[in-house]
Structures are given as structure tokens and as C-alpha cells.
Specification:
- By secondary structure, this protein is of the alpha/beta class.
- It has two domains: about 250 residues, Rossmann fold (3-Layer(aba) Sandwich), CATH 3.40.50; about 120 residues, no CATH class.
- It has ten helices and 16 strands.
- A hairpin with a 2-residue loop joins strand 1 and strand 2.
- Helix 6 runs antiparallel to helix 7 and helix 8 crosses helix 9.
- The longest helix is centred in the last third of the chain and has 16 residues.
- It is globular.
- InterPro entries: AAA_GajA/Old/RecF-like, Bact_Antivir_Def_Nuclease, DUF3696, P-loop_NTPase, P-loop_UCP034888.
Length: about 375
């Protein structure tokens, strides 16, 4: 059950924009241009749950944005339309307002359903067809311990900050029920000794920090989870002694490996605190996750992540031209516009717009010429 489209009218940066999503959708662009806006629209949908009403809640467990006046496009504030639309394979849903009367009656922080579909259908979509993981850019770094989860979207829920990752990993070791069922699933790391997903999580983490292993543990009576890490010298140490990149990335790798076919994984800034090689390998795992029939949506500033995705595409025998695309978000003439760049079967892109991951080339030219080129 894939998300096919996100339709936004006067929602935050966008006056009118449709995103036709692929199995892998990559949002990139400069700061504060609206890269995360489509992701926020999805998070609003998922956090609303629809247990007691058909309304979208713009503040909840995943994102907190404010009031309706904060999300209505400021440049088009006099327009009496605000719409968040989400299309699945067999259903299209819209929330917001389309008339002055509906706008006057709108709640401060909720959006009403404005088409005729029953909210029970929405509830069915959420509860019976897929699981989500959403990791925000504001994730937890290394800490001595984390509280155990008290409520979760599902049993493998990692938390928006990755705060429940250690708890989930400890359960994977203890129960050993999470395994790769498809022999063609390329997320199983070549160095993994078994089909247990935990083993591949650890193997992919070794692409980022070679030789390091993890020992996740929980103490139920104390309501805590904690992780010790063993570096190549064999001496166990606390997470806080290993560095930010390892902890920031552990939840990302776990989310990508644990997802099953039909699930949705949304990750903001997966590259945070990672060196270039780690970012590249993370990009490869992202593409392999999409090949495993998981819908992956990421927001990134990293050309290394993008090139890792492109490289995995080039090396794959199963890639199709519609598997992955890049949404390059930019601000032009005080409006947010989007260039759509499908990633070809050979990792190629149809064009390279100005401002699209071109800073390294500009800097090299400046170094060679001795003249600043911007």
C-alpha cells in the first residue's frame, strides 16, 4: 500500500505542488526552502490516527507545527484554500478548506476532511496494511541510557529521535524472529553469518565503524535500555566514548533493515555526523531497502548519500527507471519550486540544475583559478 502522491495547496512553502512519490523519494535543496514540508504533511497524517474523528492534527507525536495560521502559505494568506491531499493506490483523501466559510469554521490546529471518503477507510489503511518509521533530524546522540517505550506505533517502533532503538535491538537478539525471508533481499550484508536481521544491522554498522560490535541491554525493573560498544581492541565501552556518528546512524540502519515489504520509512538527514564513506554506504543501503519493496522517503543535504544511492542503482540488476527520484527544492522569485530528477537505471540523472550539489565543483574551480566562483 504505497503513497502515490502528496498534493499541497497553500501549505507552508507551497502555493500549489504535487509530489508523485516513487519507492525511493529523495528531497534535497538549500536550507529553509521547504524540503521537509512534504514530510511534515505525511507525519501529520500518520500522527492523526483517526480513532475519534476524521481530522488531521497538525500537532502530535511526530511533528508539532503550531496553528493553522502558521501553516497557511504566508505569501498567499488571502486565498481561502488550504489543502493537504494524500493519494494511495486506491484512495485519495483531502483535508483543509476550500471556501471562506470553511476557513472561518476551521479549528486552530486541526484540518477537516473535505472529500467524501469515510475516515474508517483511513483507519483501515493505517492499521492493517503497513507500518511506518519516522526518524527526525533531531535524533539522540550517544547517551548512557534511554527510558523504555510506554506506547508505540508498532512493536519495532524506534521513536522519532531513535530513542527506542536499543530496546528494539535487545529484543531482536532475545527473540530472533526478525529474519530475511527473501533470499534475494540485498539488505542482508555479504558478511552476515545468518539471516537474522540483527546480524546484518551490525555488519552494516561496521561499514561505518569497522570492527565495532554492539551489546544492547534492558533492565525492565529500572525502565532503562543501554548499549555497550566493543571496539577492535576488545574492551567494552559506553556509547558516549565512541562518537556521535555511530549513535546517530544506528537508528537509521535499524529502520532500513527492519522494514518489511509494504512498510514506509521516512528519515531526515540520515547523514548526520557521518564521514563521507559512511554516508555513501548509507546511501547504498537506502536504495537496497527500496529494492526490497519498502517505500523510503529521505531528506538530505549530502551528495555522498545521493552518490551512494546512484552507485547502488548502477550495480543493481533489479533497478527500474521509476524506482527512485530526486525532488530538488529551491526558492525562485519568492516562490518555492521543485525540479524532479528521476534516477536512471545506470545511476544517471537527466539534468544537473544550478545549485544542485555543485558546491564542490565550484570550490575546486575557485581553487584552481584563484578567483571566487559562486
Amino acid at each position: 500500500m504505497n503513497i502515490k502522491k502528496i498534493n499541497l495547496t497553500n501549505f507552508k512553502a507551497y502555493q500549489s505542488q504535487t509530489f508523485e512519490l516513487s519507492k525511493l523519494s529523495v528531497f534535497c535543496g538549500s536550507n529553509s526552502v521547504g524540503k521537509s514540508t512534504a514530510i511534515q504533511a505525511l507525519c501529520i497524517f500518520f500522527q492523526s490516527k483517526f480513532n475519534d474523528s476524521d481530522t488531521l492534527k497538525i500537532n502530535g507525536d511526530l511533528v508539532t507545527i503550531g496553528e493553522i495560521s502558521d501553516v497557511h502559505n504566508h505569501s498567499n494568506r488571502n486565498d481561502d484554500q488550504l489543502i493537504i491531499g494524500i493519494d494511495f493506490n486506491q484512495i485519495s483523501l483531502q483535508w483543509g478548506y476550500t471556501t471562506p466559510k470553511q476557513r472561518d469554521e476551521a479549528s486552530l490546529n486541526e484540518l477537516r476532511l473535505i472529500n467524501t471518503r469515510s475516515p474508517s477507510i483511513t483507519n483501515f489503511l493505517l492499521n492493517n496494511n503497513f507500518k511506518i518509521q519516522y526518524l527526525s533530524a533531531d535524533r539522540f546522540g550517544p547517551k548512557d541510557n534511554f527510558p523504555l517505550s510506554q506506547h508505540a506505533f508498532h512493536s519495532n517502533w524506534l521513536g522519532t529521535k531513535g530513542e527506542f532503538t536499543i530496546e528494539v535491538l535487545q529484543r531482536l537478539i532475545e527473540v530472533k524472529t526478525e529474519r530475511f525471508n527473501d533470499v534475494n533481499d540485498q539488505r542482508k550484508h555479504p558478511a552476515a553469518r545468518s539471516i537474522d536481521k540483527f546480524v546484518s544491522i551490525e555488519a552494516w554498522m561496521q561499514e561505518i565503524a569497522p570492527g565495532y560490535t554492539i551489546t544492547p541491554q534492558t533492565i525492565g525493573k529500572a525502565n532503562v535500555a543501554f548499549n555497550t560498544i566493543t571496539p577492535p581492541n576488545g574492551m567494552q565501552t559506553r556509547s558516549i566514548n565512541v562518537g556521535y556518528g555511530y549513535s546517530y546512524t544506528l537508528s537509521v540502519v535499524t529502520a532500513l533493515i527492519l522494514a518489511s515489504a509494504g512498510d514506509i520509512v521516512i528519515i531526515e538527514s540520515p547523514e548526520a555526523h557521518l564521514h563521507p564513506r559512511g554516508q555513501s554506504y548509507l546511501g547504498r543501503l537506502i536504495l537496497l531497502t527500496a529494492l526490497a519493496n519498502v517505500q523510503v522517503i529521505i531528506e538530505t543535504h549530502s551528495d555522498h548519500v545521493l552518490n551512494g544511492i546512484r552507485l547502488a542503482t548502477r550495480l543493481s540488476d533489479n533497478h527500474t527507471d521509476d524506482l527512485a527520484k530526486v525532488f530538488f527544492v529551491k526558492n525562485e522569485n519568492s516562490q518555492t519550486n521543485v525540479d524532479i530528477l528521476p534516477i536512471g537505471a545506470k545511476g544517471d540523472l537527466p539534468s544537473w540544475p544550478a545549485g544542485f550539489f555543485d558546491q564542490q565543483a565550484l570550490d575546486i574551480r575557485s581553487i584552481i583559478s584563484g578567483v571566487s566562483i559562486s
